[in-house]
């Protein structure tokens, strides 16, 4: 993979989320040096939450070891004593007070300023107008698609950059580094890039909710939605992404984009009905697999032992924000079901979130004690191997597949009950 040669640079990143870490690690990977100001107490503590992303953690440690990353705990008092050529601010998880303090400091500085984050349309342009610098850029992370945020960031499949001043991005060290590592990019004014980001994310959410509505119809029509999806992807007009039925979408990006778009529409006294419906369908979809299980057991799941495979909001991640796991667990517990979760990547985060709840048990083996398990719910699957149907068949364990993980040939091999999302079965 192409790397930029090491060059002297003065880049300061201020942020506290995964995108800030990925941005910093991409720059050190490209051969640049970065000073990273975060809200965590130590570098180890900060990266610990991303242990599931091995490539990110490896680059983090390498950058600390070779000195290309300098980690600092952010304190507003240090601002007057620091001076960098380029500042990259990640606005998500940065309080309004901290944002304004940093912007007030940068207001009259002769430096370049890069901005990233999911904010109200027009906010980026407003920030740029506060700054005397003409070199202000907006880099939305619309390119995230891989489970590894680091791998997606070092080779963006689509790079959008907003410019305060036309034709200045290629002269900025951060923008130039990313432009050198993508074949698909667009430079435009700030507000157009802001609006494009909002459109992209909300269209993705809308496609997912619509495909899930169609999947419910497929169940009643005895049609396998996976086969329909493969045919839909033959039509270039529809695109190939976000055409997969399942339990819906989670994470922080799409829900936040829904919320921002709705607020913007309502502020302008415009209808937000479509956004409301997309969100409603998505929230309801997260409970659909529970209702299928409830019906299978004829409303009697008390003392039933339920194994849950996966908890992350997408494949390959240990982050569970917005995942259906947070809908399914309370529903099961509310009816006195016994739950065991298999997800090595998300175990630490779930343990922390439900630390005081003895009802949450974990296993390190997906087929552990299946002879005592009444059903398996599949929310996610991050393993490199396929599920072992022969092990499931030993006890004919019923499968409730919210991810539509199993293929048609695997379903046909099952000796027990199976239902998914729009599979026309069960």
Automatic annotation (TrEMBL):
A molecular function (GO) term: oxidoreductase activity, acting on the CH-OH group of donors, NAD or NADP as acceptor
The name this protein goes by in its record: UDP-glucose 6-dehydrogenase
Transmembrane stretches, by residue range? 20-39
Supply the SMART domains for this chain. UDPG_MGDP_dh_C
Signal peptide positions are none
Q: Tell me which UniProt keywords the record has, alphabetically.
A: Membrane, Oxidoreductase, Transmembrane, Transmembrane helix
**Domain UDP-glucose/GDP-mannose dehydrogenase C-terminal: from-to ranges:** 307-408
Please give the InterPro entries that the UniProt record associates with this protein. 6-PGluconate_DH-like_C_sf (IPR008927), UDP-Glc/GDP-Man_DH_C (IPR014027), UDP-Glc/GDP-Man_DH_C_sf (IPR036220), UDP-Glc/GDP-Man_DH_dimer (IPR014026)
User: From what superkingdom does this record's organism come?
Assistant: Bacteria
């Amino acid at each position: 993979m192409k790397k930029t040669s090491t060059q002297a640079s003065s880049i300061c990143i201020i942020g506290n989320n995964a995108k800030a870490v990925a941005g910093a690690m991409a720059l050190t990977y490209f051969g640049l040096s970065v000073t990273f100001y975060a809200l965590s107490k130590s570098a180890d503590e900060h990266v610990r939450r991303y242990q599931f992303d091995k490539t990110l953690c490896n680059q983090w440690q390498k950058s600390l070891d070779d000195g290309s990353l300098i980690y600092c705990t952010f304190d507003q008092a240090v601002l007057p004593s620091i001076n960098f050529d380029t500042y990259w601010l990640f606005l998500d998880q940065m309080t309004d007070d901290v944002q304004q303090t940093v912007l007030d400091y940068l207001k009259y500085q002769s430096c370049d300023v890069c901005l990233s984050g999911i904010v109200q349309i027009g906010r980026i342009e407003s920030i740029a107008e506060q700054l005397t610098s003409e070199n202000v850029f907006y880099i939305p992370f619309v390119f995230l698609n891989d489970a590894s945020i680091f791998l997606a960031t070092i080779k963006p499949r689509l790079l959008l950059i907003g410019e305060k001043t036309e034709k200045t991005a290629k002269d900025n060290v951060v923008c130039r580094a990313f432009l050198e590592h993508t074949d698909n990019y667009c430079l435009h004014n700030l507000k157009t890039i802001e609006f494009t980001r909002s459109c992209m994310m909300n269209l993705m959410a809308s496609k997912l909710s619509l495909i899930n509505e169609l999947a419910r119809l497929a169940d009643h029509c005895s049609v396998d939605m996976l086969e329909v999806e493969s045919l839909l992807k033959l039509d270039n007009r529809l695109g190939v992404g976000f055409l997969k039925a399942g339990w819906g979408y989670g994470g922080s990006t799409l829900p936040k984009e829904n919320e921002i778009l709705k607020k913007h529409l309502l502020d302008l006294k415009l209808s937000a009905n479509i956004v409301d419906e997309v969100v409603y369908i998505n929230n309801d979809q997260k409970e659909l697999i529970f209702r299928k299980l409830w019906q299978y057991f004829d409303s009697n799941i008390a003392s039933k032992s339920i194994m849950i495979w996966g908890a992350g909001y997408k494949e390959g991640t240990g982050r569970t924000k917005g995942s259906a796991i947070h809908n399914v667990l309370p529903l099961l517990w509310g009816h006195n079901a016994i739950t065991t979760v298999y997800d090595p990547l998300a175990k630490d985060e779930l343990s922390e979130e439900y630390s005081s709840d003895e009802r949450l048990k974990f296993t390190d083996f997906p087929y552990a004690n299946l002879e005592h398990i009444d059903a398996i719910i599949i929310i996610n699957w991050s393993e490199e191997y396929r599920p072992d149907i022969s092990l499931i068949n030993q006890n004919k364990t019923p499968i409730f597949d919210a991810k539509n993980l199993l293929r048609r040939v695997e379903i046909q091999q099952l000796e027990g009950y199976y239902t998914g999302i729009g599979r026309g079965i069960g």
